[in-house]
Amino acid sequence: MTLEVILFFIFGFVAAVAAVMMITRNNPVIAALYLILNMASLAGLYLTLNAQFIAVAQVIVYAGAIMVLFLFVIMLLRPDNEKKFMESNPKVKIFSFIVAGFVLLQLIYIIFFSAPSKILKKNLEASVKAGTIESIGNELFRNYVLPFEAAGFLLLAATIGAILLAKKKIE
Amino acid sequence: MNITEIIIVSLIKIVFVLGITLLTVAYLVYFERKIAAWAQNRIGPNRVGWQGILQPFADVFKLLLKEDIVPEKANRIVHAIAPMIALFVAFTTYAVIPIGPNVNIFGYDISLVVADVNMGVLYVLALTSLGVYAITFAGWSSGSKYSLLGGIRSSAQMISYEISMGFSIGGVLLLAESLRPIDIVNSQAGLWNAIIQPIGFITFVVSAFAETNRLPFDLPEAEPELVGGFHTEYSSMKFAGFFLAEYANMIIASAMIVTLYLGGWHLPFEQSLGLSGSWLTVFQITSFFVKMGAMLFFFIWVRWSIPRFRYDQLMNLGWKVMFPLSLINIIWVAVIIMITN
Questions:
Q1: How far apart are CA B189 and CA A156, in angstroms?
Q2: How close B271 comes to chain A (CA, Å)?
Q3: Is the pTM of this model over 0.80?
Q4: Cβ–Cβ of B152/A72 closer than 8 Å?
Q5: Residue B110 belongs to what H/E stretch?
Q6: Residue B83 burial class via C-beta count within 10 angstroms: exposed 0-12, middle 13-18, buried 19 and up
């Protein structure tokens, strides 16, 4: 086994275990802790695929920023009402099982039955080069500049909307 | 070099960097107390060894021998993990900071950095963004209101200042056209970034103070309001972990400031000194450490000179002053590049 395969198994194992632990914990803060662990090991998996930038972005954006906000909400709002809601509405459980089963079927189909649209069989150097920040920047600002800017505007609109909603009184 | 040689060289570098860091941390605490004493017209530690020079070892010994108390309401596992996260983040960041140019030892060309990563700057940012969890989880797991408030305060503070920190770095990256710390240092061989982009330098230094939770930004542990903040319920070596991490973060912040803005190991007019190859290297490595020492002194000096901000002042400063300033800095650098090209 090469080093990459060993690392893949380690990170994959940690990611899978963390994911299962996350959905089975009762305490939301502990669940968030496992989600962070899951995201960190995902970043490790990206590294084994030579996608350095995506790995670092995964840590900065998801593990570093979004999960901090998650924790904030959990710590400040203390979602204890969740349990009462589940107990008073038993039908929600059935609905969630149906949705979960649907997603599982989709995943099984994608992983085992559908043919991958395009398998990149390039050499190692090309794949390392594709993961560097230079090539991602080139793609983003040359070939995909319009969608990129559009996404920027969308985020700006969302930010302004959030500020407006958070303001108690509009003069 | 073959693979075993690379592993051996890397291991030597890691041991070297860790050793230097731990020793610096120990003596940084000593100097903090000495400088505090100097600022307040006291004598400071002077009992253990000559002029109190062995004080750090006495401190560590005291912390080791203390009883480790975990509150009844605490979540024991998370309570123990939190200081480990703090230490992990503090010590892994050193891997990408170069202390000097490549040197030739026994016929090997060795770069004076543990890992010459292609995107070293982003690596540092990623790790520091994980540092928030140490404080948040420490606050939450202690099962105490003071700790929780301290933890939440600090995470709000850290994510606010991370933004202006990231944007200040943007200007440096534009000039260096690279994320590799060695390239960034070499791009400053002529003129330091601190001179080309003074606004970015100031916003970065201020954000670094906020990120390391040092005064005037040490609100997470504001004693008059929150007792000890997030580490109220910590004792013995777990407390020492946070203590160590704070000083290690200070060293990291100083090293980053020197690397990004103060020319790393380069000094202006270093070539005109007429030093031969190896002496020039020694001179450059020394200049890196001297600059870092000056920054560390600055950190301590500010702590004992400036009072703490109020929390709303801190947030206003972060979002309404530092963030726009760092954006202006990026535009400034872009204009400079446009003109000079």
A1: 39
A2: 32
A3: yes
A4: yes
A5: strand B108-110
A6: buried
- Flag if A60 and B133 touch (Cβ within 8 Å): no
Query: What are the DSSP calls for B190-204, one per residue?
Result: SS-HHHH-HHHHHHH
A130 touches chain B (CB under 8 A): no
Query: CA nearest B52: which of B63, B60, B44?
Result: B44
Smallest CA–CA distance, residue B197 to chain A, in Å, is 24
* Interface contact flag, A60 B125, Cβ < 8 Å: yes
Identify which of A29, A59, A133 has the shortest CB distance to residue B140. Answer: A29
A71 chain-B contacts, CB cut-off 8 A? 136, 140, 155
Work out the minimum CA distance from B269 to partner chain A, whole angstroms: 32
Partners of B108 in the beta sheet? Answer: B105
C-beta atoms of B179 and A133 within 8 A: yes
* Neighboring chain B residues of A64 at a CB cutoff of 8 Å: 126, 129-130, 132, 162
Q: Which of B200, B211, B53, B188 is nearest to B130 (CA)?
A: B211
Q: Residue-wise pLDDT tens for chain B (341 aa)?
A: 677 888 888 888 888 888 888 888 888 888 888 888 888 888 888 888 788 888 888 888 888 888 888 788 778 888 888 888 888 888 888 888 888 777 777 667 777 777 777 788 888 888 888 888 888 888 888 877 888 888 888 778 887 888 888 889 988 888 888 888 888 888 888 788 888 888 989 999 998 888 887 777 777 666 666 676 777 778 778 888 888 888 888 898 999 999 888 888 888 776 777 667 778 888 888 888 899 999 999 988 888 888 888 888 888 888 888 899 999 999 999 999 899 87
**Contact assignment for B122 to A133 by CB distance below 8 Å:** yes
* Structure tokens belonging to residue A170: 């509009």
The domain ranges of chain B are: 60-340
Contact A68 B155 (CB under 8 A): yes
Residue B34: which H helix or E strand, with range?
A: helix B3-39
Q: What is the ipTM of this complex?
A: 0.79
> What tokens does A86 get?
């589940």
Q: Is B268 left (phi over 0), alpha (psi -120 to 50) or beta?
A: beta
Tokens for B183, please give them. 């390239």
